[in-house]
Amino acid sequence: MLALSFLNPMLLWAVPLAAVPIIIHLLNRRRFHEVRWAAMEQLLKALERNRKRLRMEQWLVLLLRTLAVLLLVLLVSRPQLGGGLVSGVTHHVVVLDDSASMRQRSGSLSLFDKAQDQARELAKKLRSSRGGDLVSVVRMSRVHEPDLWVQRIGEGVERRIGQVLAEQRCGDAAIDFGAAMSAVRARAAAVKESSRVDYYVVGDLRSCDWLAEDGKPRTSVVQFLAQIDVDRERVHAMGVGSRDADNLAVTAVRCVDRMAIASVPVELAIDVQNLGLDMTQAGELAIEMDGKSRVTRPLPPLAPGELATIPVVHTFFGSGDHRVVASFAAVDHYLVDDRRTLALPVADASRVLLVDGEPGDGGDDEVGETMFLQAALDPGGDQPSGVAVEVVAETSLGEVDLAPFDMVWLCNTPAPSPVIVDKLETFVAAGGGLAIFVGGQVDPARYTETMWKGGKGLLPLPLGEIAGDPDRREHVALIDKSHSICGKLGDVLQLLVDGAVLVKRYLTIQEAPNSGAAIVARVRDAEGPPAIVTRTFGNGGGQVVLFAFSADKQWSNWPDTDANVVMAHQTHRFASKSRDLASQNLDPAGAFRLKLDPGSYQDDVRILAFAEDGEERTMTARVPEGPATPVVVGTSPPQLELVVPMSDLHSLGGYEAKLMLHSGAEESRAFARNPDIAESRLVRVLPQDFTRAYPSELHTAVTFLDESGGLLRGEGEGEMWRLLGAAMLLALLLETLFAWRFGRR
After folding, report:
1. How many structural domains is the chain composed of?
2. What is the mean pLDDT of residues 447-457?
3. Between 371 and 26, residue with greater pLDDT
4. Model pTM score
5. Phi and psi at residue 567, in whole multiples of 5°?
6. Percentage of the chain with pLDDT > 70?
7. 360: left (phi over 0), alpha (psi -120 to 50) or beta
8. Whole-number pLDDT of residue 16
């Protein structure tokens, strides 16, 4: 809906000046004293014959004179056509995208630099053509703290906007475009001085900001556009930079093993993905360990969307926090995601608890249930296994704190009491691993009752009766060598198990449909009873592994085979508690948190960056907010919590928190600040993409602009001064021409 508005509406009071030519005309028609004479009669007769023509000529000249004055008044009032109601004041809100993707280069400038240039050009046009309107400048990351809000357009506005833009810096976080624009609109709606709002969104207009992965509209953007009143509001979206969206990114640096152990090889993986639209060239990936050792791996050509995982095995010879950095040489215009850091805690050893259900007479380890398992997990010698084994009798399990352990093995233990079962369930639900070897002391009915619980307990499957004949031993067949418990050793384990492992007795394991259990091995053949079964406990808990035979030689020759050693370590790698690396590896929207004992540590902590700029600051640990807890005399003070918001830091890569003890010693904790991979998808949304995906009733809310045309324009709107000036000159020219022509006649 087009309507007329005026930049200088106060000058419309001069419209009555258009009556001046009419007044002059009327004054010229005043009566005079008539004196009739003879020749006058002939003149009067001639005048009577031409009266109609003369009147038309006079009215035409009068009309042109009146029109010239009216056009002059309109010209100085500066009318303009726009999509909305008649309004004297428009609020121009410039919204700059300052998310991480705006750091991509376009020539010698970043896209954020180009967006600022567009804002400067807009400020220049506003000063010269929209005096009296309002202007605001907002960055998407700071919608609640605008850089400039409701500035009257006039002298000095261009300089003020230039100062604001000079102080801005592009961020490195991801931004929800729809939510940010809804917040801007809510703030603009509170400005009562204007009755029209024009939003100028300047950014890279990434497709993923407007469209979901399935090509459907983003819910937050739909909610924003649905609020737009097209009679009073309009969104002008401009994409800066080229539409070349080539981008190769390091999307992840991962520890494949569930935990890293000192002096034990650790398997790492680096994910590299082509997030652009064209095939990439072969390259080279560099991996640095603690800024010292450096290895390179070939990087193959990748098709659009293709992901390559580069494996790396490294041995860390000291415990504590380590730093792994993966990077490659710049091959595109977006350098932010060409480098990624992993802060990796390395432990001295993984603690394992073996619960012996039949230790033997007098505690003789040689006949104990756990002797062979203990030797398999920690054989000793010069080559460390990385596993620290602790053995307890079944009767002592209730007194052991399971929290420090990564895995618990139950070896021929009688049915645990409800208290022990609850304790084990809590441990496994928190991510701990549990392995169960059965034996003569296992009561299948009691185990099923207390630990199966209809599929909600710890047992992967319910237990049946004891089966097998000691005089007719049966083979064990590995039927799923691709299972995660086998890892990369599936073929090796199949050779070690098939034909080598013989069982005399075994506990039947009853298969239950929809239990979620995975059968790794069976007795006899691929159709026989389950021999090794795994299942994840609960929703996201730890792994439970069930063996249908005992850990000693009573029921099988398992301890005498190499399969015992290999499977023991593979089970540990598969089921032991996984270290949470997410708390130390954060994106710019996260926060590093650290609990500190005020009795040991000072509350001031230095934060240091490993990057070249050497960012350094001091932060203070405080008592966490919450209900006040009264301090009891004689008790320890409440723990302090250090919170380091990633938004307060500027560098990407590794950091360390330097902790000072009251003794004067210093400790450090490492963390990494990495780019949000969501910002690496640079493909731009096109107007036809928007039209195709969004409902038709929302199409009029957005106008997509071309960078070359500038921001202050739009379909069906603009100032009319050129047209009015030409019309006024034409009216004056015609008035002069007609007056001369009619006067001669």
Report:
1. 5
2. 93
3. 371
4. 0.80
5. -70, -30
6. 88
7. left
8. 77
Give 170's strand partners.
none
Task: Give the contacts of 117 (CB within 8 A, at least 6 positions apart).
Answer: 109
For residue 501, tell me if it sits in a domain: yes
Are residues 474 and 562 both part of a single domain?
A: yes
For 251, phi then psi, to 5°, come to -90, -20
pLDDT tens-digit readout, 302-348: 999 999 999 999 999 999 999 999 999 888 889 999 999 999 999 99
Measured CA to CA, the distance from residue 295 to residue 560 in angstroms comes to: 40
Domain presence at residue 387:
yes
Residues 485 and 360 in one domain: yes
Residue 578 corresponds to which tokens in the numbers above? 């996984």
Residues 6+ apart with CB under 8 A from 434: 407, 408, 409, 410, 424, 427, 428, 458, 537, 542, 543, 544, 545, 575
Residue type, 106: S
Give dist(CA 34, CA 41) in Å, integer: 13
Give the largest CA-CA distance in the chain.
162
Residue 394 domain-assigned?
yes
Cα 96 to Cα 214: distance, rounded to the nearest angstrom: 27
Shared-domain flag, residues 367 and 412: yes
Query: Are residues 437 and 514 located together in one domain of the fold?
Result: yes
Q: How many residues does the chain have?
A: 745
Joined tokens for residue 138 = 């907002």
* CA dist 690 → 113, 198, 200, 596 (Å): 26, 19, 17, 51
Spell 442-456 as b/e; 16+ CB within 10 A means b: bebeebbebbbeeee
- Cα angle for residues 461, 465, 466 (degrees, 5° grid): 110
CA dist., res. 257 & res. 334, Å (int): 31
Beta bridge pairs of residue 519: 533
Provide CB contacts within 8 A for 722, sequence distance 6+. none
Q: In which band, very low, low, confident or very high, does the pLDDT at 135 lie, cut at 50, 70 and 90?
A: very high
How many CB atoms within 10 Å of residue 86? 12
In a domain, 557, yes or no: yes
Q: How far apart are CA 223 and CA 217, in angstroms?
A: 10
Alpha helices in 13-110 (DSSP H): 20-28, 38-77
651 Cβ neighbours under 8 A, 6+ residues apart: 609, 611, 613, 615, 673
With helix as H, strand as E and coil as C, how does 383-447 read? CCCCEEEEEEEHHHHHHCCCCCCCEEEEECCCCCCHHHHHHHHHHHHCCCEEEEECCCCCCHHHH
- List residues bridging with 475 in a β-sheet: 502
Main-chain dihedrals φ then ψ at residue 391, nearest 5 degrees: -110, 135
Pair 143, 173: CB distance under 8 Å: no
How is residue 377 annotated by DSSP? H
* Amino acid in position 609: A
Contact 357, 394 (CB under 8 A): yes
